[in-house]
Design a protein that fits this description.
By secondary structure, this protein is α+β, with helices and mostly antiparallel strands. It is built from two helices and 14 strands. The chain is 19% helix and 51% strand. Helix 1 runs antiparallel to helix 2. The longest helix is centred in the first third of the chain and has 21 residues.
Length: 224
């Protein structure tokens, strides 16, 4: 719906509310209030600079002690507004994170922390407009982040996303005993039955979703 049509639709709802108040039809007033509330909420949820067409993450555990790891992200986005000049990445985790940070396209312009989350501002070095697309490739190293026998790694869906895939790969010498996916908001936990051995001998657990829920934190966990 265009901004003009959205505005006209909201104005129609407001007119109905005024009529209901004047005529004293409180039941109708209640119904129209609920309708307007739903419309405004939906509009707030749909806001954003871009939508995510494809989102893939890989966590590579480099050694059997969990001392060294690398995180890789591929995110294809479509811009929903004009005059976009920056993209925001985010990261969290135990140990040392964001070591040797790399991104393409764009240039890392700033990093700041709020609570347990670090935010990375990426300058696009050009202007993007509504309908344009970009495919971001991001990677960074971690140290001493996965030292415990039971570990987890979460990804929050902070924008409308059509497809999401996450995987963790393990050294050949330390196959995970079991793995699961936890959907934080619903506290739904699903066992991941297949632990695959790759051509190079490493082990992998994979989980994917079409149209994952907005604001959900999908946590992939394992015991090794």
């Amino acid at each position: 719906m265009s901004p003009q049509n959205q505005s006209n639709s909201n104005n129609d709802f407001l007119k109905q509310l005024v009529i209901a108040m004047v005529t004293g039809s409180w039941f109708e007033l209640l119904i129209e209030s609920i309708k307007l509330g739903k419309r405004l909420f939906r509009g707030m949820v749909d806001e954003g600079m871009y939508e995510v067409l494809e989102y893939e993450t890989t966590l590579e555990l480099k050694d059997k002690k969990g001392e060294k790891a690398k995180f890789l992200k591929r995110q294809k986005v479509k811009y929903l507004q004009n005059n976009i000049i920056a993209y925001q990445d985010q990261a969290w985790g135990d140990g040392e994170i964001l070591l040797d940070y790399k991104c393409s396209p764009g240039v890392q312009a700033d990093t700041y922390r709020i609570g347990h989350v670090s935010y990375i501002l990426i300058s696009l070095r050009e202007q993007k407009n509504k309908g344009d697309t970009d495919e971001f490739h991001i990677e960074w190293d971690m140290r001493d982040a996965f030292l415990e026998p039971v570990q987890q790694w979460g990804t929050e869906i902070s924008h409308k996303t059509k497809y999401f895939k996450t995987q963790v790969t393990f050294p050949k010498s330390r196959k995970p005993a079991r793995a699961w996916i936890l959907e934080h908001m619903s506290q739904k936990r699903t066992q991941i039955e297949e632990i695959t051995q790759l051509a190079n001998g490493r082990w992998a657990i994979v989980w994917e979703s079409h149209h994952p829920r907005l604001h959900e934190n999908y946590i992939i966990g394992w015991e090794w």
